[in-house]
Design brief:
- The protein has about 260 residues and is α/β, with parallel strands linked by helices.
- The chain has a single domain, classed as Protein-Tyrosine Phosphatase, Chain A, CATH 3.90.190.10.
- It has 12 helices and 7 strands.
- It has helices at about 40-50, 60-65, 90-100, 105-115, 120-135, 150-165, 170-175, 180-200, 205-210, 215-230, 235-240, 245-255, and strands at about 15, 20, 25, 30-35, 55-60, 80, 140-145.
- Strands 1-4-7-5-6 form a 5-stranded mixed β-sheet, with helices on one face.
- About 35% of the residues are buried.
């Protein structure tokens, strides 16, 4: 099946439901993931409105939201989950592109380290918890997104799949759908232009693809650190994110057929 939902100004938009999950199956049309919606066209907003989204999780830092304001559809009434944590202090990505040699290897190194920190950021844990609590209320479809819809969004989608009982291969396959050649072709030059404007240096095409894409080892690195600190994803979800077994069961009841 085609999971990407083509929109004009919203990249990496897709349904991450409709996977086998244990003895059941994830529903289609309940779990969506994407990049930001700052460049959404009016037609995009109409398409988003038709999905009936009632929960929208914006995983971006405050400075990212300020830089790229989300567009909303007419009659927008979804619960928006975001926070102001990280409003002060440096942005790690901006620090990296401003100081590092922009090569494919340097991007891979940055991403490896970033994924080891990502699950334990207080800001992310707060957003993850509130997302799952919203799902447990079973109000309707949800959309999760960050800036590019790949890293923070990818980890949260993978945790959702784990709660549902989606198999490891499907979790990774869904995560890797971010590596869409069409998206690289459409947005690669824009990405490189932005980097050049911000730093005075233009990254190579290989560095661009590394920065815009994902690698299976990134998600594996995040899960490895989670295992080291909490014994596994269930321990992390219970002790770090704060989801007891009853809440996880409510989440499953909402997203599974």
């Amino acid at each position: 099946m085609t999971r990407h939902i083509p929109l004009q100004g919203v990249e990496n938009f897709r349904d991450f439901g409709d996977y086998a999950a244990g003895e059941g199956r994830l529903k289609k049309g309940v779990l969506f993931r994407a990049a930001h919606q700052a460049e959404a066209t009016d037609a995009d907003l109409e398409a988003l409105a038709a999905l009936g989204i009632v929960t929208l999780v914006d995983l971006r830092r405050p400075n990212e939201r300020e830089r790229s304001h989300s567009r909303r559809w007419t009659g927008f009434a979804a619960q928006v989950i975001d926070n102001e944590m990280g409003a002060t202090g440096p942005d790690p990505w901006l620090e990296f592109i401003g100081s590092a040699e922009l090569t494919e290897a340097s991007v891979h190194t940055y991403m490896d380290e970033y994924y080891r920190r990502l699950p334990f950021k207080e800001r992310h844990i707060d957003l993850f918890r509130r997302f799952f609590l919203a799902l447990a209320e079973a109000k309707g479809p949800a959309l999760i997104h960050c800036a590019a819809g790949k890293d923070r969004t990818g980890v949260l989608a993978a945790l959702t799949h784990h709660i549902a009982g989606v198999g490891d291969d499907d979790v990774i396959d869904d995560y890797l759908l971010t590596n869409d050649p069409g998206r690289f072709d459409r947005r690669g030059h824009v990405f490189m232009d932005h980097i050049q404007e911000a730093t005075g240096r233009r990254p190579s095409e290989a560095a661009m693809r590394a920065a815009m894409g994902v690698e299976a080892r990134y998600l594996a690195a995040a899960f490895e650190v989670i295992k080291d600190q909490h014994g596994g994803l269930d321990g992390y979800l219970e002790r770090a994110v704060g989801l007891d077994a009853a809440t996880r069961e409510k989440v499953r009841a909402h997203i599974l057929l």
